[in-house]
Amino acid sequence: MFDKVLIANRGEIALRIHRACRDLGIATVAVHSTADENAMHVRLADESVCIGPNSPTESYLNIPAIVSACEISGANAIHPGYGFLSENPKFVEILEEHNITFIGPTSEHIKLMGDKITAKITAEKLGIPIVPGSDGEVETVEQAIAFAREIGYPVLIKAAAGGGGRGMKIVNAESEMDEAYNTTRSEARVAFGNDAVYMEKYLGNPRHIEIQVLADKHGNVIHLGERDCSLQRRHQKVFEEAPSPVIDASARAKIGETVTNAIKKLGYVGVGTVEFLFENGEFYFIEMNTRIQVEHPITEMVTGIDLLKEQIRVAAGEPLRITQDDVVLTGHSIECRINAENPKTFTPSPGDIQRFHPPGGPGIRLDSAMYAGYRIPPYYDSLIGKLIVYGASREDCLRLIQRALEEFVVEGVETTIPLFRDLIHQPEVISGDYTIRWLEEYLGL
What we know:
Number of helices: 15
CATH class of the largest domain: Alpha Beta
Strand content: 25-35%
Number of strands: 20
Structural class: alpha+beta
CATH topology of the largest domain: D-amino Acid Aminotransferase, Chain A, domain 1
Radius of gyration: 21 Å
Distance between the termini: 49 Å
CATH architecture of the largest domain: 2-Layer Sandwich
CATH superfamily of the largest domain: ATP-grasp fold, B domain
Shape: globular
């Protein structure tokens, strides 16, 4: 096991990593920008190192500064959390050169799954069902038009290096193709430094279902069921639940077995999430995320398995202590992502938190690094916390989340709490009868 882990992140995930390390008896090192000197994880860590000014490129994305902090503090492993450098293969390669363990997969697997074209080809070879689409990069508008005629409109043009809902355009007719194709390539070049694009059939009204996997260095792979992340705004998840209201035990076992077999063939190590679109009883591969997910807590709640601790253990070379037969989904869990944003316009709302009263009681969990008096800086993601509830049934969860949202008080900045107070009363949310299009249609976006 590691003696000391450096946490290369900020916010709620940095605090979550710190707590997992402390539970395992591991010392922690917090790195931070000048804007985050009073952050909760910085206050609680055994050591802290300032790695640069406010800008992420000069701090949390500054690889030399993070490696230097690791060497100064004597940390023998780095946990990247999510975002920032968590899926940067060059970062992993540099750590390997410095004999520092990256708590995550190999740089080769990050590269493989980071490129959406390569990931799709790999998934198909491994037996994972995919969305009908191009075999590789679509290099010209003429190729795009020819392919769209073959599979039929609407189609989706996607950046090969894209992610987080960026770098994609829906094309409903041939007359739209020229502008959509060139715009996507241009945006991909600016956002990802790679203008390669590919095409897929655009599914009409699917759900977003993802399978959580966990694999060790000894060839053991398990899945921990699915999460339903269909309530999205501009391809960004805002509300997740596990298990999905529309996946039965038979479908879960089938897709779970398909995914675990593929991950084993791949030789993957660590936590990972294989994401699908689900429509008319069929799963279609979207991508694989090679890191811990924002929404991991709901899987923890229904399985009783601490994903962060398991992630750290397998990175240290320990074999999995659980088998697939040990994974039993019990009850239901829902997560709301609470952002410091205007609940109607979604404009970021940085500033000072004047009052902070988290909800409590049985079945309620809040993953947040906020406290009264904390200043939310304007330089980073607006996520301030994840409200998670667990109940014996989905109906219990809906009642719990309603009470928790009523109790939750944040003053001084605007938050999306009012949005969730409204959503939780909508018939489609109550019934679970929603898809990835529903929220945007409801909000009129």
